[in-house]
Amino acid sequence: MNIIKDYLPINIYSRPGSRRPETRAVTWHWVQNPMTSAKFNRDWFATAPERKKYGSTHYLIDLNGDIINDIPDEEVAHDCGAAGKIDPVSGKLYTDLARKMFDKYTLNPWTPSYVIISIELCHLDWNGKFTDATMDSLVELTTSLFNKYDSLVDPMNQIIRHHDVVGWKNCPKWFVDHPDDFENTKKRVLARLS
Questions:
Q1: Do the beta carbons of residue 134 and residue 61 sit within 8 Å?
Q2: Bridge partners of 69?
Q3: Least enclosed by CB within 10 Å: which of 9, 98, 159, 171?
Q4: Cβ distance 58 to 77 under 8 Å?
Q5: Model confidence over 97-119: pLDDT tens digits?
Q6: Hey, what's the torsion of the CAs at 127, 58, 181, 130, to 10 degrees?
Q7: Contact (Cβ atoms closer than 8 angstroms) between residue 193 and residue 143
Q8: What are the DSSP calls for 73-93, one per residue?
């Protein structure tokens, strides 16, 4: 697994520098930008202050499987906030699952981002399809995070999609549209941990 540390500069929009108090889950995302590299998307997060838009992730996985770590695991990334939008199913700021998993971290001024490590995936097209190299690195990286954090013990329940947190966001699109692939990829992590 090739991880390149390329940390974002500290700023309020993409890398606030705040420490995460604990780790409750790993979230998977898509970059929503087909055929772009992890470096391109890392650099886009670096422009968040210029755009005055919040957003970031801990890791980006390239089409070739390379991984960029742009925010240290111990710090908060702006990855799973509700952005003031309501989950269409629960009618609340976050999904029922998120409110159960993250309790106080779903109440303002908190967000689940305080207790999540996030991974963004580069993809081939607007269907959100990932390369085999991206998927292999995703499984390896996620497994390493479960080995690193004692609080991560159940990949079938502690690996979630961004969609599972906010409900209104189709992220990562491939796993939202293909829930069997999502479950099977979590099983690959589980198998590596067994």
A1: yes
A2: 5, 59
A3: 9
A4: yes
A5: 999 999 999 987 789 999 999 99
A6: 40
A7: yes
A8: TTB--S-S--TTPPPTTTSSS
Report the pLDDT value the prediction gives residue 81, as an integer from 0 to 100. 87
Structure tokens at 83: 């952005």
pLDDT of residue 36: 97
- The sign of the CA dihedral 74, 78, 79, 82 is positive
Give the total residue count for the chain. Answer: 194
Residue where the block lists tokens 């742009």:
70
Residue from 143, 158, 154 nearest 112 by CA:
158
Q: pLDDT at position 83, please?
A: 84
Residue 60 has phi, psi (to 5 degrees) of -125, 130
Domains in the chain and their CATH numbers? Answer: 3-193 (3.40.80.10)
